From TrEMBL:
It comes from Flagellimonas chongwuensis. The chain crosses the membrane at residues 7-26, 525-547. Residues 186-490 form the ABC-type uncharacterised transport system domain. Keywords: Membrane, Transmembrane, Transmembrane helix. It comes from the Bacteria. InterPro entries: ABC_transp_unknown, DUF7088, Motility-assoc_ABC-rel_GldG. Residues 33-139 form the DUF7088 domain. Pfam families: ABC_transp_aux (PF09822), DUF7088 (PF23357). This is Gliding motility-associated ABC transporter substrate-binding protein GldG.
Amino acid sequence: MRKFLVSILKVIVAVVVINLLASFVYTRFDLTEDKRYTLSEPAVAVAQKFEAPVIVDVLLDGNIPAEFAKLKTETIQLLESFGSKNSNIKYNLVDPMEDSENPQETVAQLQSLGLQPANVTVEENGKVSNELVFPWAMVNYNDQTVKVPLLKNRLGATAEERINNSVQQLEYAFADAFTKLSIEEKKSIAVIKGNGELDDIYIADYLTTIRDYYNIGAITLDSVGSNPQNVLNQLKNFDLALIAKPTEAFTDQEKYVMDQYMVQGGKSIWMIDQVNMEMDSIYAGGGEAIATPRDLNLKDLFFKYGVRINPVLVNDLYFTQIVLASGEGNDSQYNPIPWFYYPMVFSQNNHPINTNIEAVRYQFTSPMDVLENDYQKTILLQSSPLSKTDGIPRIVSLDIINQQPDEASYNNGGLPLAVLIEGSFTSMYKNRVKPLKLQNTSEEGPENKMIVISDGDVIKNQLRNGRPLELGYDKWTNNRYGNKEFLVNSTNYLLDNTGLINIRNKKVTIPLLDVKKIAEQKTKWQLVNIGLPVALTLLFGLFFGYYRKRKFTA
């Protein structure tokens, strides 16, 4: 018996010593297969920049549904990983509805801050209820606050897919927020004007979003005719040029200025409509309008970089909806209808730009040919397998909604709609007569990147009462699309020198409990978890009593 007590004492002493040592030496071991608790180097680098407290308020405290409890756990573990790299990063769990005397007013206040709730249907013991959850975190540093969405929803995603998508983007979401708070010198973006591009109010939400990362200015190409050198010099002060839906042709002089800007290292995003067609034209034309080619004098420029936008329309059975009104006055009804010229474009998840994003809405888009040359090209978005092209000029009529589509004719799918081009850029005017004289021109440039998107409306936000709505939100159908995330990711990729956006490629799989099995086997596992320990305790007591009795009566 004495030996037994000595052994117990040794174990206790060993445990105390180990705990004392652990209090002085802190380390973490990530034993997960996908290493989801091992932070990437860019995330660690941005977290270590803070020299003052960073407080993260996680709005997932209180009584929340099971799937959000898992998201809460993963969020806490990730923040503890960040905290292990920088002790200034701390977190609080907050229940936004706690002690709320007027829940509706509290919800309205949270929504006014841009914190949209998730409406969750909960089924328990045969009863179904709806609950509002605010899956957000607020990162506070000095006098700045950045909102971090914790829930990553995708159209048609199951509960398990939704949690996997959410957890997969957590590290990037927080690293991105830390980046916004720690930026010391912002890069610059030039919004190109002068060729009938979208007015600022129609790209306002995108510009507002990227303002956290970048400085924004406008460059008008009209001045190229009178002072091209000055325009080029101004452009060189910007790291990226944004060309959003030009409707007027570029002159050769303007093209040469843009060519020299890109060859000398300037990044660019081109959003181009090769077909002249708008829904407003159809409504104004009594339900129909003629689609015609739009000549922007850019074919040779894009051809040099290995893409060609074809002047035809993509007709896709994976479509988004438009809304038509029927009736008059107070009896008017708004009915959503399929519109084959508004493709719903799902990502192939083949690049950090498009990984884990919601479907992107295109409007009257054209397909691109990807040509062979020395540049590396990545198709970021493409039409569905059930798509085809419609030649122009043609009459586009609302009557198409009354016609049954011939599915057999939709056999030309996978049409490129957004292409990333990377490589050492060569001037389109190399070994050619230059349209004007510029100083310090280059025919061969450094490594560079550009993105060509065959739809100018991909960046266009809708308006309500003259005010811009969130990019990707359709006020008529109340649907949300991934346009903003796609464009912000594109911008960050082009201008990111740290590799932070590559975190989006991280793959995480979270095993979840089977809800159906839980309901079917609930009683069984309650008995196992409650009854088995009791039975084992009784069995051990009987065995120990028998052992003692036999030992001391022998």
